Amino acid sequence: MSVATTHLSHPAALAAEPPRLARQLGAAGLIPFVLGAALIWLVYPEAQPLVTLAMAGYAACIVAFLGGIHWGLAMRAGQHEPAHFGWSVVPPLVAAVGVLMPAYAGLVLLGAMLLVCYAVDRKLLVEQGLNAWLTLRFRLSAVASLSCFIGAAGT
């Protein structure tokens, strides 16, 4: 079954926009980013390492999740998709490094990786016929990465 046939067999892939639940959960997923960035600037200095670690850990989970999407897409296609399988392992590896770095650098790396994941998705999701998800992905990635950069600036 070809990639074109695969995505055509999934009506949700052809929808004008992602389902409402996906948009709501995506927005809810931004709460730890925005709250974390604000708290880094607002908490007592003694509490800042805990807040930055929590934010970096959450950002790393999201970055790894974005890589995992491509593993799932490759499995769904029923073919060996080297681009999806290969890319799917990069974000978790970078995320692990980002968590181990000092917060001022790790949050920048994680914020940048969120943008890199979006850039890769602009190519690979279009190939899968999932263009409708790109607007949501852009908005979520922009807020999440900006939050990481603001958090890093507060360390």
Descriptive terms for the model:
single chain, 155 residues, mainly alpha, 77% helix, globular
Account of the 3D structure:
This protein has 155 residues and is mainly alpha-helical. 77% of the residues lie in helices and 0% in strands. It is globular and about 50 Å long. Mean pLDDT is 89; it is low at 1-13.
Shape: globular
What are the segments in which pLDDT stays under 50 over at least 5 consecutive residues? 1-13
Number of helical segments with 4 or more residues: 8
Fraction of residues in helices? over 70%
Oligomer: single chain
Roughly what fraction of the amino acids lie in strands? under 5%
Largest sheet: none
Helix-strand topology string: HHHHHHHH
If you compute it from the alpha carbons, what radius of gyration comes out, rounded to the nearest whole angstrom?
17 Å
**Protein structure class:** mainly alpha
Number of strands: 0
What do the pLDDT scores average to? Answer: 89
Alpha-carbon distance between the two ends: 50 Å
Q: Short description, anyone?
A:
This protein is mostly helical and about 160 residues long. It is about 75% helix and about 0% strand. Helix 4 runs parallel beside helix 7 (about 105-125) and helix 7 (about 105-125) runs antiparallel to helix 8.
Topology:
Layout: H1 3-8, H2 20-28, H3 31-42, H4 48-77, H5 82-88, H6 90-100, H7 103-127, H8 134-153
